[in-house]
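Bench log, entry 3. Co-assembly request; chain sequences pasted below exactly as received.
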Amino acid sequence: MTLRINGKRLNETLQSTCTTWGALSNSTGMRRLALSQEDREVRDWLVAECKALGCEVKIDQMGNIFATRAGTSKTRKPIAMGSHLDTQPAGGRYDGILGVQAALEVLRTLNDHNIQTECSITLIDWTNEEGARFPGAMMCSGVWSTESATGLQACWDIKDLDGISMKQALEETGYLGPTPADYRENGLEAYFELHIEQGPILEASDMKVGVVTSVQGMKWFRVKVSGVEGHSGTTPMQGRSDALVTASRLITAVNDTARSTGLGVATVGVISNDTQSQATIPSGVEFIIDVRCSTDSMVEELSTAIFKKFEDIVASEANKTSYEVIRTWGLPESIFHKDCIEAVRSSAISEVGTSKIMEMKSGAGHDAAWTSKVVKSSMIFVPSKDGISHNPAEYTSPEDCSLGAQVLLGAVLRYDEGIKDGSIP
Amino acid sequence: MTLRINGKRLNETLQSTCTTWGALSNSTGMRRLALSQEDREVRDWLVAECKALGCEVKIDQMGNIFATRAGTSKTRKPIAMGSHLDTQPAGGRYDGILGVQAALEVLRTLNDHNIQTECSITLIDWTNEEGARFPGAMMCSGVWSTESATGLQACWDIKDLDGISMKQALEETGYLGPTPADYRENGLEAYFELHIEQGPILEASDMKVGVVTSVQGMKWFRVKVSGVEGHSGTTPMQGRSDALVTASRLITAVNDTARSTGLGVATVGVISNDTQSQATIPSGVEFIIDVRCSTDSMVEELSTAIFKKFEDIVASEANKTSYEVIRTWGLPESIFHKDCIEAVRSSAISEVGTSKIMEMKSGAGHDAAWTSKVVKSSMIFVPSKDGISHNPAEYTSPEDCSLGAQVLLGAVLRYDEGIKDGSIP
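Structure output for the full assembly:
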């Protein structure tokens, strides 16, 4: 008989912790920015829960939490399950949070039935996945993987809008841990991540579980447009060098180019204006472009097309301004490992049958994209109502949350069994 | 023999107080936001200087400072000179500041020579002229005139970006005074304002003094564009409702419409984005449009053309968003009074001759625009290097600053003489 997670307990825990730590008033939305007071408190709660289950808890140098339930093997590394507890400034209750709460429910279920696994089983809460407070999404799994261009010290130095550095925030919340944020010193056998789809595909095709095989490639560019300040009442239109007008043309071009090429998606989600005074012509405007495509080469192609358009706009404009790309980040496309994909597929089929599962690429970035660079990884998706995410209206039904946790449990046990019987090396 | 101001003292006082209170590092720029620590300290200094000259100092309910040197008449109200000591976030040392410092120099000169005037002579420092901290330019002269649509309580309630209200800032700096902010209870005979031109005309035509006859009409609109939040990686380009993309098209249209119609100038100096996260499609973007034309009817015509363009853009866009004008302010065109214009003209001619003065309209708004609605008013302009203002590079030579102060003194004395001899009623 298949071991069953407790869906009621999972959903009650998820809802009550969201209500307590970070709920927006008048909606089911969440604002739980990385290393904020709300994030610190829910992390403290998680650590206490895991310790109460008998787990050993390690905090690494980026604040990533590793809570480990011991297995019998002395030589094997842990099989991990995880995601993130932080949210967007006006996000929902499921993005990231479901993956961590489902991992906790798996640990509770293993305890309830005194299950002895071969490998240790580890729950992970990755810090600052959203990058909403400290710019740089999937920041801390990136550091742990050592594959991100932004390493430990550079991430420690990143500041939020109030000038507080990541390292300072880690120290102040008590999450600057001693464990190296490096997979070579704190390694895993495999990594599974349950997540909501954050898109409309599963719901639209009446599927219950997405067996995720890859994550699309992404690149971000921070662009600064420079003009010349001047008085809005006395500077003739002809002599102007208005950075916001040029930025507006460029942002329009980002959107138009993504639509016309059909290569992928491109979004400007952040804009800031140096002067920000109604009587002053803006001289410095910054914005961030987010480009995502199925493959890295398509990301390159779309980015190149966008910047070609930028050159044309700035060259042809009567409004004389200049622009520069002042910083870039990126996440290469990630192909998940067949051993993990197979464990998820087998677990999902046993729950809902072959007709209700589908193989998918992830449009969003996830911590699993970084882990997959250095340990076998894959993901499980469950449906998002109307495909909405990063929004208070984000919703996944209690039944789908439970189903996801059940598939996660099955995948972990199948993988553990594969190691025990030698079918997984 | 004409009474002479002390140009060396004027310029030394202006430069040293700028260096002490609000100087930007590494430039001659200024950041002295209304009721900031720097503004409070320079106001405290000004009050002390005026009291040392024997002036009576009154502070009104909006923090406007009135420092009065007594005249002989028991029935006449004071003749006033003034401007503002606050600056843009990255402004210069002359915009507003010169007008107050020149007024102080006039008071000092009158004292130095024991001049007895018929009317009392009042120096005024108007609070928050720039509107850079508390939105709404010329806010406090507007309240005093009782002609502004935004009255005392509404202005008290206006908040800065940190959520501090105008009233709270007045209280905390000690400038919430007991004198009614109302010209009917704290009246003036006339008002003269010396200001830098903030445009290129005087310099380009090799003129020394502008005899200002009017201020152009202005209107501001706060516009909010609403879309739907969504994940930047999983929301297809086709289904998007991106408020920043629409806002960008609208801001571009503001600029294009002002250029193509030639009716005046239109600027977007302020933009803000509700979500401000690189992985979230923006759902709420606000910006402020500043429209200025020679006449009120041209302001109406240009505004109407801009909003017509907005309708077309929003209706034709694949990107489904909506917009609303959530607030407007305005300053009607102001025609200055012949008695004041004549006093300025006569004083300027006696200093530089008729070939070096020109009649001008002001492109920028000034406190004199509000005072002119309720008391006889006019302004004096001196040249701005390269027409630059609201910028650290703003510059007016010490000679031109002194000349402006001298013309101001002459205008005030001529006006006072006119009252004495009955030529001014």
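Chain A has two domains: 7-216+333-421, 217-331. The domain at 217-331 of chain A is CATH 3.30.70.360 (Alpha-Beta Plaits).
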